[in-house]
Amino acid sequence: MPTAKVPRLTGLKKVAGKPVDLLVHGQDLGDDAMLIVRLTEEGFELSDVVNMLSTSEMYLCEDMVKRITGRSVRTVQRLLKEGKSIRLDSQQSVVAYQYALVLEMATRAFGGLPQAEVWMQKSTPYLNGYVPLELTHHPLGFQMVEQYLCRLLYGGYP
Question: Distance (Å, rounded) from C-alpha 118 to C-alpha 107?
Answer without folding.
Answer: 10
